[in-house]
Design a protein that fits this description.
The complex is a heterodimer of chains A (about 140) and B (about 500). Chain A has about 140 residues and is mainly alpha-helical. Chain A is built from 5 helices and no strands. Chain B is about 80% helix and about 0% strand. Chain B contains 20 helices and 2 strands. In chain B, strands 1-2 form a two-stranded antiparallel ribbon. Chain B is globular. Chain B starts with a helix and ends with a helix. The chains are: A mainly alpha (about 140), B mainly alpha (about 500).
Chain lengths: ~140, ~500
C-alpha cells in the first residue's frame, strides 16, 4: 500500500499496540482481558504492519520458523508450569497449594503460576494469529 | 517417588500425547525422530494404562479420584479412574499403538509427501490425548472441550490426504460435527441450568432430586445430548458424513477414526446418560426405548447400505454405521449383562474395525484396486494381509473363538433378560447381514483366480501391526477373562447410580 497517512499512523501506533498487548497479558489475572485477548492485540501489531508494508516485510520481521517455535513452546510452557505442582509433590496445576507465593489479591504479582502461564498463552495466541494471517494471505490468488 | 508417580499416572496418560503433539512441529523434518517419539508415546501409553487397569482390577484404593490443581470436587475438575475409565483407556492405547506402528512405512505415500507426515502425527496424538481424557474426565464441561479437540483433530486427519475429495469430506464432517458440538454444549447448558453443577456426581444427585420440577428441561437435555453425540458417533440418520470421511482418509486415519474416535463420543454419551441422568431417570423418560429403536434401525440400514457398496473402504465405513447401531442399542438395554456385553463389543469392534481398515489399506496401497470385485486372488498373493482381514471379518460376524462373539453373546443374553425381543431378533439378523457383506470379499479374494501381477505382503512393521491386532481379537475371544471382568464391573458401576 502506498498511502502516506496509513504508513505514518501505523508507525506511530505500533509501539503502543505492542506495549498494550503486553500490558493486557501481564494484567490478565487482575483486570478484564487476559492472556488470550492480550495475545491477539500483540499479534495484531504484526498483522497491521504486514498489511500496510506488505507481507514480505512482515515475514522478514518475524519468520515463519520462529512462529512455529513460539507456538509450540508457548503451549509447552503451560504444561511445564502445570508440572511444577507435580514436582513439588502436589496435583497437576497446583498453585498456592504447592507453596507458590500468590501475594496480595489485586496486586500485579498476585497470580502465582497463573501469571507465568499467561505469558506462555499470550505468546502462543499472538503467533497463532500471525500464522493464520500469513496462511490466509498466501491462499489469495 | 513411586507413590507420586502412581498418583499422577492419570494425568501423565493424558498429557504425554498432548505434550509430544505440541512440540512435534518444531522438528517436523526429522522423520525418524518423529516416528520414534510417536511409537515411544504409544508404548508408554500401553504400559501406563495396563498398570492402571491392573490396579483397578486388584482394587488398590480404586476408584481413584484426581482433583486437578488440588481443588476438590464441586469447584475443581475431577479425573476418575474407575472401571469404565480404565477399560476405555486400555482400548485407546491398545488400538492406537498398532495403528502408529502400521503408519511407520506407509504414511508418506498416503498423505502425499514427507513434509506432511509430522502434521498427521500431531493430530493423531491430539486425538489420542483427547480420547484418553474422555475416558477419565468426570466434569461435563471438560467433556465438551475434549469432544471439540477430538472433532477438530478428526477433521484434520480426514483432510490429511492431498486430494480434493478428502477436503470435501472433511468440510462436510466439520459442518455436521460443529452442529453436534453445539447441541452437546446446549445439553450441558440445560443440565447446568437446573442443577448448578458441572461435576457429574454432583449434577447427578441434584438432577435426581429436582427433575420433577423441570421435566421439560430434562427432556431437552436428553434430546440435545442424544442428537449431539448421535451426529458425532454417526448414529443412523445422522451418519451421512461418515462414509465419505472414513473412506477418503489415509488408512491409518480411517482405522483410528472408525475404531476409536467414534467410540470416544459413545463413551461420553454413556457417561452422560448413566452417570449424570442415571438409569432410573432414563427409564422414566423412556430414553432407553428410543436408543434401542435407533440402534435397531441403524443396524438394519447400515448393513443393507454396506451390501450395496463395491468400494472396499466404503463398505467398511457403512459397516461402522451398523456396528454403532449395536452399541447404541446395547446402551438402551438396562442390565448388567447387556451393558457389559456392549462395552466388550465396543472394545472388540475398536480392534476389529481398525484391523479391517488397515488390511484393506495395505491391499489398496499394494494393488491400487479399490473395488471388491477387482480383488480376485488377493488371498494367494498377499496371504498375511488377507488372513488378518479374514480373522477380523469372522470376528465381526460373531463366530465363536473370536472377540466379536463374546460381546454379541452377552448383548444377546442381556436383551433376552430385559424381556425385549426386538433387539434380540435384530442382533441375530444383523450378524447374518454382516456375513452377507463381508464374506463375498473373502470369497473373491480366495476362490477366484489371480491375475499375473507381482503383488506382495507389505513391509515388516505393517505386517507386525496387522498380526498384533489379529492376535488381540483371537486372544480376547479365547480368554476374555480379565477384560470381560473389567467390563462387567464397569456395567455394575454404571447401574449403581
Amino acid at each position: 500500500m502506498k498511502d502516506f497517512i496509513l504508513k505514518r499512523v501505523v508507525v506511530i501506533i505500533l509501539p503502543f499496540l505492542c506495549v498494550y498487548g503486553f500490558y493486557v497479558i501481564l494484567h490478565g489475572h487482575v483486570s478484564p482481558g487476559g492472556s488470550f485477548a492480550g495475545g491477539i492485540i500483540l499479534g495484531l501489531s504484526i498483522i497491521a504492519y504486514s498489511t500496510i508494508f506488505g507481507i514480505e516485510k512482515g515475514k522478514a520481521k518475524i519468520p515463519e520458523k520462529v512462529l512455529v517455535w513460539t507456538e509450540s513452546y508457548g503451549t509447552l510452557w503451560y504444561g511445564l508450569m502445570g508440572m511444577v505442582g507435580i514436582v513439588k509433590g502436589f496435583p497437576f496445576l497446583a498453585n498456592k497449594l504447592a507453596g507458590i507465593d500468590v501475594g496480595v489479591p489485586g496486586a500485579l504479582s498476585s497470580g502465582g503460576l497463573i501469571s507465568l502461564i499467561g505469558i506462555g498463552v499470550g505468546i502462543r495466541v499472538a503467533s497463532t494469529m500471525v500464522t493464520l494471517f500469513f496462511t490466509m494471505m498466501e491462499e489469495e490468488p | 517417588m513411586t507413590d507420586s508417580f502412581t498418583a499422577n499416572l492419570p494425568v501423565y496418560v493424558i498429557i504425554a500425547p498432548l505434550f509430544v503433539a505440541i512440540v512435534l512441529p518444531t522438528f517436523a523434518r526429522l522423520k525418524r525422530l518423529v516416528q520414534g517419539l510417536v511409537l515411544l508415546v504409544g508404548v508408554l501409553g500401553v504400559a501406563g494404562t495396563g498398570y492402571l487397569a491392573y490396579m483397578v482390577l486388584s482394587k488398590e484404593g480404586f476408584p481413584m479420584i484426581y482433583s486437578m490443581g488440588g481443588w476438590p470436587a464441586p469447584w475443581g475438575i475431577e479425573l476418575v479412574v474407575g472401571n469404565l475409565g480404565a477399560f476405555f483407556l486400555l482400548v485407546v492405547s491398545g488400538v492406537s499403538l498398532p495403528v502408529a506402528l502400521f503408519s511407520r512405512d506407509n504414511l508418506t505415500v498416503e498423505v502425499g509427501g514427507k513434509e506432511r507426515v509430522a502434521r498427521f502425527y500431531v493430530f493423531y496424538l491430539l486425538l489420542v490425548g483427547a480420547l484418553s481424557g474422555m475416558a477419565l474426565t468426570h466434569d461435563l464441561f471438560n467433556v465438551y472441550v475434549l469432544v471439540e479437540v477430538a472433532t477438530l483433530s478428526c477433521c484434520a486427519l480426514v483432510s490429511s490426504r492431498k486430494h480434493p475429495r478428502a477436503a470435501e469430506a472433511a468440510f462436510n464432517y466439520l459442518i455436521l460435527a460443529t452442529l453436534g458440538s453445539a447441541l452437546v454444549m446446549g445439553g450441558i447448558g440445560f443440565i447446568y441450568m437446573i442443577t448448578g453443577h458441572l461435576n457429574m456426581g454432583f449434577a447427578s444427585q441434584e438432577i435426581n432430586r429436582i427433575w420433577q420440577h423441570n421435566p421439560h428441561v430434562v427432556w431437552l437435555a436428553f434430546s440435545f445430548m442424544l442428537v449431539g453425540f448421535g451426529v458425532k458417533s454417526a448414529l443412523f440418520p445422522l451418519h451421512i458424513w461418515l462414509p465419505d470421511a472414513h473412506s477418503t482418509a489415509p488408512s491409518p486415519a480411517s482405522a483410528i477414526l472408525s475404531g476409536l474416535a467414534v467410540k470416544g463420543y459413545m463413551i461420553c454419551l454413556l457417561k452422560v446418560l448413566y452417570n449424570v441422568f442415571g438409569h432410573s431417570l432414563m427409564q422414566e423418560f423412556a430414553v432407553h426405548r428410543i436408543m434401542v429403536l435407533a440402534g435397531t434401525i441403524a443396524i438394519l440400514a447400515g448393513s443393507i447400505s454396506a451390501m450395496t457398496q463395491d468400494d472396499l473402504k466404503r463398505r467398511l465405513a457403512f459397516s461402522t454405521v451398523a456396528q454403532v447401531g449395536y452399541i447404541i442399542l446395547g446402551f438402551g438395554i438396562v442390565n448388567t449383562k447387556g451393558l457389559a456385553g456392549t462395552l466388550f463389543y465396543l472394545a472388540s469392534h475398536a480392534v476389529i474395525k481398525s484391523l479391517l481398515f488397515l488390511s484393506a489399506g495395505s491391499i489398496i496401497a499394494v494393488t491400487g484396486k479399490k473395488k471388491v470385485s477387482e480383488l480376485a486372488g488377493i488371498g494367494r498373493k498377499m496371504p498375511i494381509t488377507m488372513a488378518t482381514f479374514t480373522i477380523a471379518s469372522l470376528s465381526l460376524i460373531g463366530i465363536p473363538l473370536f472377540s466379536g462373539f463374546i460381546g454379541k453373546w452377552h448383548l444377546l443374553v442381556g436383551s433376552m433378560e430385559a424381556g425385549n425381543f426386538l433387539p434380540t431378533a435384530v442382533i441375530i439378523i444383523g450378524s447374518v447381514l454382516c456375513a452377507a457383506y463381508l464374506l463375498p470379499v473373502i470369497r473373491v479374494a480366495y476362490f477366484e483366480s489371480a491375475p499375473q501381477e507381482d503383488w506382495k505382503d507389505p513391509g515388516f512393521s505393517q505386517k507386525l501391526a496387522l498380526i498384533v491386532l489379529a492376535a488381540a481379537t483371537v486372544i480376547l475371544g479365547v480368554v476374555p477373562g480379565p477384560f470381560l471382568e473389567l467390563a462387567t464391573r464397569a456395567a455394575t458401576d454404571l447401574l449403581m447410580r
